[in-house]
Amino acid sequence: MGLISVLVLAVALAMDAFGVSVSDGIIIKKIKLRDAFKIGIFFGGFQFIMPCIGSFIAGFAMQYIEMFDHWIAFGLLVVLGIKMIIEALREEKEIPKDPLGPATLTLMAIATSIDALAAGITIAAVGTPILVPAIIIGVVAFGFSFAGLYIGSRFGDILGEKAEILGGIMLILIGIKTLIEHLMG
Protein backbone atom coordinates (compact mmCIF):
# COMPACT_ATOMS: atom_id res chain seq x y z
CA MET A 1 0.00 0.00 0.00
CA GLY A 2 1.56 3.29 -1.11
CA LEU A 3 1.93 6.50 0.86
CA ILE A 4 -0.86 8.31 -1.03
CA SER A 5 -3.25 5.41 -0.39
CA VAL A 6 -2.36 5.41 3.30
CA LEU A 7 -2.91 9.18 3.54
CA VAL A 8 -6.30 8.93 1.83
CA LEU A 9 -7.23 6.07 4.16
CA ALA A 10 -6.04 8.07 7.19
CA VAL A 11 -8.16 11.08 6.23
CA ALA A 12 -11.22 8.88 5.62
CA LEU A 13 -10.76 7.16 8.98
CA ALA A 14 -10.31 10.51 10.75
CA MET A 15 -13.66 11.89 9.55
CA ASP A 16 -15.72 10.20 12.26
CA ALA A 17 -13.32 11.36 14.98
CA PHE A 18 -13.42 14.84 13.47
CA GLY A 19 -17.24 14.85 13.57
CA VAL A 20 -17.31 13.73 17.19
CA SER A 21 -14.68 16.34 18.10
CA VAL A 22 -16.75 19.05 16.44
CA SER A 23 -19.81 17.92 18.41
CA ASP A 24 -17.79 18.01 21.64
CA GLY A 25 -16.50 21.47 20.76
CA ILE A 26 -20.08 22.63 20.25
CA ILE A 27 -21.06 21.85 23.84
CA ILE A 28 -17.88 22.98 25.59
CA LYS A 29 -18.00 26.63 26.56
CA LYS A 30 -14.29 27.44 26.76
CA ILE A 31 -11.77 25.26 24.96
CA LYS A 32 -8.34 25.02 26.52
CA LEU A 33 -5.25 23.84 24.68
CA ARG A 34 -5.04 20.82 26.98
CA ASP A 35 -8.62 19.86 25.99
CA ALA A 36 -7.64 19.81 22.33
CA PHE A 37 -4.55 17.73 23.14
CA LYS A 38 -6.62 15.37 25.27
CA ILE A 39 -9.18 14.70 22.54
CA GLY A 40 -6.43 14.46 19.94
CA ILE A 41 -4.50 11.93 22.01
CA PHE A 42 -7.59 9.79 22.69
CA PHE A 43 -8.77 9.70 19.08
CA GLY A 44 -5.29 9.61 17.55
CA GLY A 45 -4.19 6.95 20.02
CA PHE A 46 -7.12 4.68 19.31
CA GLN A 47 -6.80 5.29 15.57
CA PHE A 48 -3.16 4.14 15.90
CA ILE A 49 -3.81 1.13 18.14
CA MET A 50 -6.83 -0.30 16.29
CA PRO A 51 -5.10 -0.93 12.92
CA CYS A 52 -2.29 -2.63 14.85
CA ILE A 53 -4.81 -4.89 16.56
CA GLY A 54 -6.57 -5.47 13.23
CA SER A 55 -3.31 -6.43 11.57
CA PHE A 56 -2.48 -8.79 14.42
CA ILE A 57 -5.76 -10.69 14.22
CA ALA A 58 -6.08 -10.52 10.42
CA GLY A 59 -4.89 -14.04 9.84
CA PHE A 60 -7.66 -15.82 11.71
CA ALA A 61 -10.62 -13.51 12.36
CA MET A 62 -11.19 -11.28 9.31
CA GLN A 63 -14.61 -12.63 8.38
CA TYR A 64 -15.96 -12.34 11.93
CA ILE A 65 -14.85 -8.75 12.51
CA GLU A 66 -16.26 -7.53 9.22
CA MET A 67 -19.62 -9.03 10.19
CA PHE A 68 -20.17 -6.85 13.25
CA ASP A 69 -17.74 -3.90 13.40
CA HIS A 70 -20.27 -1.47 11.96
CA TRP A 71 -22.94 -2.57 14.44
CA ILE A 72 -20.65 -1.87 17.39
CA ALA A 73 -19.74 1.60 16.08
CA PHE A 74 -23.40 2.33 15.28
CA GLY A 75 -24.61 1.22 18.72
CA LEU A 76 -22.02 3.16 20.71
CA LEU A 77 -22.49 6.38 18.75
CA VAL A 78 -26.29 6.24 18.84
CA VAL A 79 -26.35 5.53 22.59
CA LEU A 80 -23.94 8.41 23.26
CA GLY A 81 -25.96 10.71 20.97
CA ILE A 82 -29.27 9.85 22.63
CA LYS A 83 -27.67 10.34 26.05
CA MET A 84 -26.45 13.81 25.00
CA ILE A 85 -29.91 14.78 23.73
CA ILE A 86 -31.64 13.53 26.88
CA GLU A 87 -29.19 15.44 29.08
CA ALA A 88 -29.74 18.58 27.02
CA LEU A 89 -33.52 18.33 27.35
CA ARG A 90 -33.53 17.71 31.10
CA GLU A 91 -34.62 20.72 33.04
CA GLU A 92 -32.48 19.74 36.02
CA LYS A 93 -28.82 20.08 35.17
CA GLU A 94 -27.27 18.77 38.38
CA ILE A 95 -24.09 17.46 36.78
CA PRO A 96 -22.85 19.21 33.66
CA LYS A 97 -22.04 16.98 30.70
CA ASP A 98 -18.34 16.28 30.43
CA PRO A 99 -17.64 15.23 26.85
CA LEU A 100 -13.93 15.14 27.66
CA GLY A 101 -14.26 12.78 30.62
CA PRO A 102 -12.14 9.64 30.31
CA ALA A 103 -15.09 7.23 30.12
CA THR A 104 -16.91 9.27 27.47
CA LEU A 105 -13.76 9.83 25.43
CA THR A 106 -12.87 6.15 25.59
CA LEU A 107 -16.31 5.09 24.35
CA MET A 108 -16.28 7.65 21.54
CA ALA A 109 -12.70 6.77 20.57
CA ILE A 110 -13.58 3.07 20.38
CA ALA A 111 -16.74 3.78 18.40
CA THR A 112 -14.93 5.95 15.88
CA SER A 113 -11.93 3.63 15.51
CA ILE A 114 -13.71 0.35 14.77
CA ASP A 115 -13.19 1.12 11.07
CA ALA A 116 -9.47 1.52 11.77
CA LEU A 117 -9.44 -2.01 13.15
CA ALA A 118 -10.95 -3.23 9.89
CA ALA A 119 -8.43 -1.09 7.98
CA GLY A 120 -5.62 -2.86 9.85
CA ILE A 121 -7.01 -6.17 8.65
CA THR A 122 -7.12 -4.84 5.10
CA ILE A 123 -3.58 -3.46 5.32
CA ALA A 124 -2.34 -6.84 6.54
CA ALA A 125 -4.28 -8.62 3.82
CA VAL A 126 -2.40 -6.70 1.10
CA GLY A 127 0.92 -7.53 2.76
CA THR A 128 1.88 -4.04 3.98
CA PRO A 129 3.69 -3.81 7.33
CA ILE A 130 1.38 -2.01 9.77
CA LEU A 131 3.64 0.33 11.75
CA VAL A 132 4.02 3.24 9.29
CA PRO A 133 0.35 3.22 8.16
CA ALA A 134 -0.79 3.04 11.81
CA ILE A 135 1.41 6.01 12.75
CA ILE A 136 0.06 8.06 9.82
CA ILE A 137 -3.54 7.12 10.67
CA GLY A 138 -2.99 8.11 14.33
CA VAL A 139 -1.29 11.41 13.53
CA VAL A 140 -3.98 12.43 11.02
CA ALA A 141 -6.74 11.54 13.50
CA PHE A 142 -4.94 13.54 16.20
CA GLY A 143 -4.78 16.60 13.94
CA PHE A 144 -8.38 16.37 12.77
CA SER A 145 -9.68 15.83 16.32
CA PHE A 146 -7.57 18.66 17.72
CA ALA A 147 -8.86 21.07 15.06
CA GLY A 148 -12.44 19.72 15.26
CA LEU A 149 -12.76 20.70 18.91
CA TYR A 150 -11.94 24.33 18.07
CA ILE A 151 -14.19 24.35 15.00
CA GLY A 152 -17.07 22.99 17.07
CA SER A 153 -16.45 25.58 19.74
CA ARG A 154 -16.99 28.36 17.20
CA PHE A 155 -20.35 26.84 16.20
CA GLY A 156 -21.28 26.33 19.87
CA ASP A 157 -21.05 30.07 20.48
CA ILE A 158 -23.50 30.66 17.64
CA LEU A 159 -25.98 27.92 18.64
CA GLY A 160 -26.14 28.56 22.39
CA GLU A 161 -28.28 26.13 24.37
CA LYS A 162 -29.24 24.04 21.32
CA ALA A 163 -25.59 23.04 20.86
CA GLU A 164 -25.72 19.89 22.99
CA ILE A 165 -28.79 18.65 21.10
CA LEU A 166 -27.00 19.26 17.81
CA GLY A 167 -23.94 17.41 19.14
CA GLY A 168 -26.10 14.41 20.04
CA ILE A 169 -27.76 14.47 16.62
CA MET A 170 -24.31 14.58 15.00
CA LEU A 171 -23.20 11.49 16.94
CA ILE A 172 -26.36 9.62 15.90
CA LEU A 173 -25.86 10.64 12.26
CA ILE A 174 -22.23 9.50 12.33
CA GLY A 175 -23.42 6.15 13.71
CA ILE A 176 -26.08 5.83 11.00
CA LYS A 177 -23.55 6.81 8.32
CA THR A 178 -21.14 4.15 9.58
CA LEU A 179 -23.85 1.51 9.48
CA ILE A 180 -25.11 2.49 6.02
CA GLU A 181 -21.58 2.58 4.56
CA HIS A 182 -20.91 -0.93 5.77
CA LEU A 183 -24.29 -2.35 4.76
CA MET A 184 -24.19 -0.75 1.29
CA GLY A 185 -20.46 -1.29 0.67
Describe what you observe in this structure.
The chain is mainly α and 185 residues long. It has one domain. Helices cover 85% and strands 0% of the residues. The chain contains 5 helices and no strands. The radius of gyration is 16 Å and the shape is globular.
Order of helices and strands: HHHHH
Q: Please state the average pLDDT score.
A: 83
Q: What does the main sheet amount to?
A: none
Class derived from helix and strand content:
mainly alpha
Any idea what the radius of gyration is?
16 Å
Q: How many strands in all?
A: 0
Subunit arrangement of the protein: single chain
CA-based shape: globular
Number of DSSP helical runs: 5
Low-confidence stretches: none
Estimate nothing, just give the exact number of structural domains.
Answer: 1
Percentage of residues in helical conformation: over 70%
Ends apart, CA distance between termini: 21 Å
Strand content: under 5%
Entry summary:
This protein has 185 residues and is an all-alpha fold.
Task: Name the features.
5 helices; mainly alpha; 185 residues
Could you outline the blueprint of secondary structure elements for this entry?
Elements: H1 3-27, H2 33-89, H3 102-125, H4 131-159, H5 163-184
